Amino acid sequence: MAPPYYADLGKKANDVFSKGYHFGVFKLDLKTKSESGVEFSSGITSNQESGKVFGSLSSKYAVKDYGLTFTEKWNTDNTLATDITIQDKIAAGLKVTLEGTFAPQTGSKTGKLKTSFSNETVAINTNLDLDMAGPAVDVAAVLKYQGWLAGANTQFDTQKGKFSKNNFAFGYQTNDFALHTNVDNGKNFGGSIYQKVSDKIDCGVSMRWTAGSADTLFGVGAKFALDADASLHAKVNNKSLIGLGYQQKLRPGVTLTLSAAIDGQNFNAGGHKVGVAFELEP
């Protein structure tokens, strides 16, 4: 099994804390696929606090014979994006993506060239920001040896002529256990533990701390599968913020998620958040 990319280190624990929760929003996601193989994804999110409604639409078409994938995206902020990806054709395990965005109202344009390569022992990805004033080069790599993982992520800003990011991570991962620690720019420290206790229970522990601060964020979370179509989610941190979620597959392709965020330190003061999400896919 190939090692994860740097951004995916600790993903199993992060999923325990993030999946199954949609606090303070009403959300609808729809995925369809045409007979010609074009995949369409659309989504609407209504923020209860701000009242803002955000929508997005994307289409994806793959030319499998040439390893090409074309993706078009649009959202209600009037931002257009196009991604062109070629995978496993230049070299086995190599993926190259050219990404561009354009905002018609402001005329703002961005471009990125992304590459990623992985095999059984290493996972490398680069991100080149195509800014003519001075591109930023982001490089990350993860090495794997008998389940142990070591990763580094650095970014060089050519416009300022200095490194703007220096991150390191270490970990250990098996099919049912994952340990992850990281240091970002020498001052932000983090760690997580994931354990698949049984076929029905997944647990996670997460910790964050910043040098020079006495404030440490510590949380525990769990997912319990009631059956093949329903699951319960719960998490709590040392600030007494409690998250609860319930996910139910109503029928094949239709999933309902109910979630609530409760401030345990100010329970009577209100300000708690609820969320509802529908996911529709073929």
UniProtKB/TrEMBL annotation:
The molecular function GO annotations come to: porin activity; voltage-gated monoatomic anion channel activity
Q: Which Pfam families match?
A: Porin_3
Q: Where in the cell is it found?
A: Mitochondrion outer membrane
Which species does this protein come from? Papilio polytes (Common mormon)
Where mainly located? mitochondrion
Protein keywords: Ion transport, Membrane, Mitochondrion, Mitochondrion outer membrane, Porin, Transmembrane, Transmembrane beta strand, Transport
- What InterPro entries does the annotation carry? Porin_dom_sf (IPR023614), Porin_Euk (IPR001925), Porin_Euk/Tom40 (IPR027246)
Listed name of the protein: Porin
Q: What is any one of the record's Gene Ontology cellular component terms? A: pore complex
Has UniProt tagged this entry with the keyword tRNA-binding?
A: no
The record's similarity note reads:
Belongs to the eukaryotic mitochondrial porin family.
